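User: Predict structure, ligand nicotinamide-adenine-dinucleotide.
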Amino acid sequence: MAVKKEEIQKKVIDIVVERMEVTRDRVTPETRLIEDLGADSLDIAELVMEFEEAFDISIPDDEEGVRSVGDAVDFIVKQLEEAGE
Amino acid sequence: MLRDGALAGKWALVTGAARGIGRRIAEVLAARGAGIVVADVMDEAESTAAEIGNEYGVNVLGYKVNVTDGEAVKGLFDELKGKCDGGVDILVNNAGITRDNLLIRMDETDWDAVLGVNLKGAYLCTRQAVRPMIKKRSGRIVNIASIIGMMGNAGQANYAASKGGLIAFSKSVAKEVGPRGVNVNAVAPGYIRTAMTDALSEEVREQMLLLVPVGRFGEVDDVAGAVSFLCGPESSYITGQVIRVCGGMLM
Ligand SMILES: NC(=O)c1ccc[n+]([C@@H]2O[C@H](COP(=O)([O-])OP(=O)(O)OC[C@H]3O[C@@H](n4cnc5c(N)ncnc54)[C@H](O)[C@@H]3O)[C@@H](O)[C@H]2O)c1
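Assistant: Predicted complex:
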């Protein structure tokens, strides 16, 4: 079953908007969490925690690959596809 | 006992609450209105919880769990997410043991056992409890250390190391989660009258009293009162601190 990428992206953006307390127009797939939104290491840990809960997946501790909103979406899509196989 | 309802709507988990200081802490928090989770390795965990529920009219849960067992601790906190409005609001790491011996006679099992319960147990529980607290942007964690962790004591190198470590742990976590509305403090009791200290010989006890300016051993209520303060709204600007409840034995 193909995972609906748009749905995941919407949910990820919802979480980022709420957690980082920014307006929606500031968050696109290109938005970088640290550079553009000023996230610190605890913010990142917290976002990862929320993604894990929202999508029922586990994201390894070295979340270095996840720098932008789009990275997070791609990572989650990949995880869900692997889990769904 | 304060019965101001200040903790109504909150859930507090106290480890090692089947007896002694932990039980009294659970009772004092219940008296202020908190729902109580008793987590203890003893069979009495559930019955103690039920007794507290009857006496103070609060919601209670009791679990037999070993705080050194990471899987079991995770399982417990996962279950509590559903039962305690997303997770407990207050965690008191109170479970603790002693295995006293002079260092030259202290073997590895004595060391591992004490560090395991007193320090690793607190780490495992805190790690699980803090997630929902961060999410709620509110929470209190109180670690029961000991003045021995600050001043040292011959025959208790393992215990002192565990309690000193617990204090350093509290301060580090306080710095991490302070921005998220979670306060972390330690309470360092001196000699408190419990099963732990009743086991000491008369001679040792008399020797020790000479070191206590107020001239008596502490009571479980003395410790529970400090914990209650650190869990209530009155201490919202206090984090990363160690409150000594020791009759002035260490100043
Ligand atoms: N009594 C004192 O004078 C004194 C002084 C300073 C600090 N403390 C600290 O206060 C705390 C409570 O001490 P107490 O005097 O009430 O002791 P206690 O032995 O009466 O109570 C400790 C409780 O912890 C539980 N416990 C032990 N190992 C456990 C484990 N692996 N998992 C879950 N529960 C476990 C025990 O079953 C018991 O119910 C301890 O951390 C102790 O180090 C006590």
